[in-house]
Amino acid sequence: MIPRSTRHAVATLLAAVGTLAAPALAHAASGASSTSGASGASGTSGASGGSGGSGLSPSASPVSAPGATASSPLVGNGNATVTASGAGITVSSTATALLRNELTFSGTVPASDAGDAIEIERLGHETNWQWAPTAGSTVASNGGFSTTWLTNHIGAFSIRAIVQSASAHAAAVSPALSVIVYLPAVATWYGPGFYGQRLACGGRLRHSTLGVANRSLPCGTKVALMFQGRTITVPVVDRGPYANHASWDLTAATADALRISGTETIGAASLRPEPAT
């Protein structure tokens, strides 16, 4: 493995030498206009400043293995609403939120439950895979309810609604829906000039490699990413980034799927699988 310092020096030289060739290669390889970051298979840096990180939602099915490739990656609808119905309860929410932002849950129950308490619970890695109180309200006279969680943890969560009946009847529990809370973070991307080089997690960087570089997460960890209404889940495939104060370095295919062309602020959350029981 080539030392990090040597890679960065080589990358700087490549960036200077490739002034004429790199733009055409970048366009042919990923459709993007610039590269950034300095990951295990990359070393170019600098790009446009970014905003992003709003109006986004969880991705579609995650890539199944480190270094996975796809000619047409699955990208999620950033404005999706998720709904669960059952046991006389319907509960809906936006499928995503940024940390320390509000996530509203609304829905309906039988009008006969008017005045009863309704509680929203969440389950995930942060709650040690136990249902935990999250938000609460009172059922209105027409059976409607609405309550808000000021998100204070990142990750994927199952959400359910419980009607706490004032009568002797047992509490009614809705089916669960899924949401993801993301942490805003700076991200760069890499690819042109480094295709064919070895990735820290195994395999080689290809034009179609879907993945992300991170300095500490275990190889293969699934990471949910969101940017301006587009989301995707990819594995950690490499180490880095080491430039631009970035926390994540996306492969060109991942950046292209999210329509990222420079250094941007995105939403990111590592996804921890529920332990087998």
The overall pLDDT, averaged over residues, is 80
Radius of gyration: 22 Å
Side by side, the strands of the main sheet go 11-15-12-14-13-16
| N-to-C CA distance | 39 Å
> What is the β-strand count?
16
Helix content: 10-25%
What is the fold's blueprint, element by element?
Blueprint: H1 4-17, H2 21-30, E1 76-77, E2 81-86, E3 89-94, E4 96-98, E5 102-108, E6 117-123, E7 132-138, E8 144-150, E9 155-164, E10 172-173, E11 177-190, E12 212-213, E13 222-227, E14 230-238, E15 248-251, H3 252-258, E16 264-271
Parallel strand pairs: 4-11, 11-15, 12-14
Antiparallel strand pairs: 1-14, 2-3, 3-5, 5-8, 6-7, 6-9, 9-10, 9-11, 11-16, 12-15, 13-14, 13-16
Would you kindly provide a written description of the structure presented here, covering whatever features stand out?
By secondary structure, this protein is mainly beta. The protein has three helices and 16 strands. The strands form two sheets. Strands 11-15-12-14-13-16 form a six-stranded mixed β-barrel. The chain has a four-stranded antiparallel β-sheet with strand order 2-3-5-8, with no helix packed on it. Strand 9 (155-164) and strand 10 form a beta hairpin. The model is unreliable at 1-35 and 42-71 (pLDDT under 50).
